[in-house]
Please model this.
Amino acid sequence: MGKTISEKILARAAGKKSVEPGDYVVGKIDIAMIHDLTGPLTLNVLREVGNDRPWDPEKVVIILDHQVPANSVATAALHKQLREYAVKYGLKNFHDVGRQGVCHQLLAESYVKPGMLVVGADSHTCTLGALGAFATGIGSTEMASVFLSGELWFRVPETVRFELEGKLMPGVSAKDVALKAIGTVGVDGARYCATEFTGEGIGGLSMDSRLTICNMAIEMGGKTGIVNPDAKTLEYTGVKSAPLVSDRDASYKRTVQISLAKLEPQVAMPHSVGNVKAVSEAGEVHADQVFIGSCTNGRLEDLLAAARVIKGRKVKAGTRLIVIPASNRVFMEAEKAGLVRAFVEAGASLCNPNCGPCLGGHMGILADGETCISTSNRNFVGRMGSTAAKVYLVSPETAAATAVEGKLADPRKYWMG
Amino acid sequence: MMEMFRVKGKVWLFGDDVDTDVILPGKYLVLTKPEELAKHAMEGISPSFSGKVSKGDIIVAGRNFGCGSSREHAPLALKHAGVGAVVAESFSRIFYRNAINIGLPAVISEGARGRLKEGEVVAIDLEKGELTTEAGDRIAAERFPQFLLEILRDGGLVQNMKKRYGGKK
Model:
C-alpha cells in the first residue's frame, strides 16, 4: 500500500523504512523556531533544567514578530532575553527588529525546504507544509526538549485529503478555499490529522496561496497542512528535487472535494472559525476596522489583490484600514509595485512587518462593541482585544472591498469590466 | 508523587471548542510567571473563575478543548490557578501535549460532561482511567499510554529533562 507525504517525511526523520498512522516515532528535527511570546518560556525551562546549549545552532531560528518593535516594558524584557541568548550562542538565525517579519513568512522565505521536519512554538507552524515539509506547532516546554536533543516524539497522523477541482473566479482567493474547507469539516474535523491539499486546483495556485491554505489547517484541528511539491515549490525553495510525495494509492481517513469554480467569497462569522457563510449571505455588517496582514494573508499576492480594489479609491469615513506586510521582503516588493502609495493615499495605516492586531497584542486593538473585518486566522472571543468586540475573517479582496464600502462587501464586482 | 495519580475536586462544566484565547487571552502573553498567569485563567469565558476555583478542582468540558494557539501559558494558567485536571470529550493536540508536559492531567472521557453536574465532587484515578462521583457512579476515561504517565509521574517534562540533560554545560 502506498504512503502519504506526511508518512514518508516522518519515516525519513525517524530513520525508518516506513511508518503507519498511529505509530509513535522519534523524529530528528530540521528546523526549530521560537518567537517573542513563546520563546522566553522555552529559555526559562532550559534555565531550570540547568543546560541551555542548543543541539545545533544552525537549526535554531529565533524571530521577534508578535509585538515588534516592543510596545511595553514587559515585551522589551522578552526581546532582551531572546537577544542575549542569541548572542551567547552566536545564533545567526536571529531576527531582531530591522530583520523582521512574521515568523512563518520568514521560515518560508529563507529556511524551510521540501521534505524537512519542522517544529515551531506557534500553532500556525502548519503554514510551512505548503512547501512540502511536515511542519507543526508545539509548546514551549517541548521546544526546550527539542533544543537539547534535536528530536521529538510524534504520533503518525492519519490524513484528511482535500481535493481541489477547477479554477477560482476573479475576486475569490485562497483564503476563501481555506474557510470553505473549515466550514465543511468543522473546527475539529481534522483533529490530530494531517490535512493534505491535492488536485489540479492546488497545482494552479501560487506558493503565496498555498501558504494561506496550509496556515488555516490548525483551525480544523490539523497537525499540519501539506501540499505535494511541484515545479512551483522547487522554484520557490531553490532546490533541485523533492522526492517525497504521496503515492497514488496512499490511504486517507477522508477525502473532501471542493469545487473552486463555484466558490463564492467566504466569511467566518464571530466567534468561531467554523461559522462560515458566503459573504453574499452574511447580511449587513458595519466595519469599524479592517486588517489586511498576518501569517495568513500578509504576502505580496494578498497586498496586490487588496490594492487592486483600493487604488484610486478611499477608505470609507467611519472605517479604519490597517495594512501590515508579512515581512521586510514583502514590504520592499510592495513598495516596488507602487502599493505603499496606493494604500497610504487611500487612507490606510501601513505598519511595519509584525503580527499586528491579529492576537490583540499590538497595532489596532479593538474596544468594546467594535467590529473588525480581518484577513487573519482567528475570531475567538477577545482575540483582538475587548471580549465585547467582534472579528469576521475574510480574504484580502473582501477586506479591501469592505474598507472602501465601510461594511462587509463582496469584492467580485471590482473584477468586472 | 503518588498523589499525582488521584485527583479529587469540584466540577466546573464548560462546553465545546473552549479555545486558548478564552483560557488565557493574548494580552497576557507578555506574562511569564505562572502565578500571574493564574489570575487570568478562563478570563475570556468566565471572568470570576480564577477567584473562585479551589485547589484540585476539575474542569469538565466537551469536544476539542484547548483549540487554537500553541501558547503553553493556557495550561500553565489553569494549573497554577489550582485546577487539578481537565476532563474533556476530546482535546486539541497541542493543548493535550502541553498540559501533560507541564504536569496537568488532560483526561479524555466521552461520558463525563453528560453525567456530571456543576459543583459536584469527583475523583479521577489517572492510572486506571476512571472517574468516580461521591454517589459512587463510575465513568470511564481513556488510560494514558505508559510514557505519558511517566511524564505526569515526574511532574512534567522539565523533571524528565533534568534527569537526561541536567548539569551538562
Chain A touches chain B through 54 residues (CB under 8 Å). The first strand of chain A starts at residue 24 and ends at 28. The radius of gyration of chain A is 20 Å.
